[in-house]
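Running log. JK asked me to keep both predictions on one page so they can be read side by side. First protein, sequence followed by its tokens:
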Amino acid sequence: MKLRLMTWNVHRCVGVDKRLDVERCARVIAAAKPDIVGLQELDVGRRRTGGVDQAHRLAQLVEMRSHFNAAMHIEEERYGDALMTHLPERLVRAGPLPGYPKIRALEPRGAVWIAVTLPDGRELQVINTHLGLVPQEQKKQATALVGDWMADEAFIAPAVLMGDFNATPFNAPYRILAAAIQDAQLMWPGAPMSTYPSAFPFMRIDHVFVSKGITVKRVESPFDLEARKASDHLPLIVDIEV
């Protein structure tokens, strides 16, 4: 079965033009026609973005269902990541990743995992995450993904790990992950796509990793004006065959 995957840090749906526009982000997603979408940096019920449940609203606009994990709670306000799909799915797990106690002010991080039912009855396991910014923190979080989340007996091929890892292929967190699961961008003949910053992308910090049993058919990153303005990251799109 052929599927289109997308991972995108939407930056609270606030674009590089400083404009809050959930509908614009939805248009970028819809234009790509993905089957499964991992989103990072979503606001849910936060005053700074008008109190909108961005995970629910984006899913509604693109006719998908969403599962949201709140990495951070501020009283009734939430902030975190989501997985969306139009395919049958079930939530497997949502929760935090380890922090770095030596630096107390770091933003909490988490992950969300769904199982997507394919037409032949098999399930595709999909984890979406957003790692921190401090190298020691990132290594702890990458290790937790490999040694806890992906070590779970339910995380079996075919499986996908996607998100904003804040780490290039030259960084230790990436190498920890790439030793356990394959970087989709290295599984096709095209040049790897950088996605950050959106106006002039030169950093490859958004990644899609895939297990055995998955063939990568194409990788792309939209670079039209709307995609460049909608967030400080560009989306990363990976076409696969399971």
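And the second, directly underneath as requested:
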Amino acid sequence: MPPMDASPTPPDSSPRPVIGWREWLSLPGLGIPGIKAKIDTGARSSALHTHDYSLYETAAGERRVQFHLRPLPTRRWLELECDAPVLAMREVKDSGGHIELRPFIETPVRLGGHEWNIEISLTNRESMRFRMLLGRAAIRGRFVVDPGRSSVLGPKPIGVYPKRRP
């Protein structure tokens, strides 16, 4: 049997940046300058927390969603309002086996010096530690995940949100 290579080369032979099991990233298309995300290779899709959302249709017939989120659990008073076109409504099975119909949007994500478009479902993650889950479809072919590290490419954003209620 041939010896196993301790550092396998990615299938396309290009080096990929390493990210940790959690990273700070931004969603510039939604006006979210910083949010801590759990990198979850066990989840196919990505998810973003919202405690409410409203689906509507524009005069031109475009389906959109307006939603609110609190990007930092420790600053419950800080709330952002976002608006985006609805890509699709899909059923998603959570880790507990519950099926939920969720709106999906597409938006740019920025992690370190990398920016690309991802699909994100909107759901209530109030009881979860992380307001965002970055699933394997979003990182496939782009990064290598080191589960022993965190905040490798995305250090905590300092000064992007007010410290006190305005």
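Observation for JK regarding the second prediction: The chain has one domain: 18-146.
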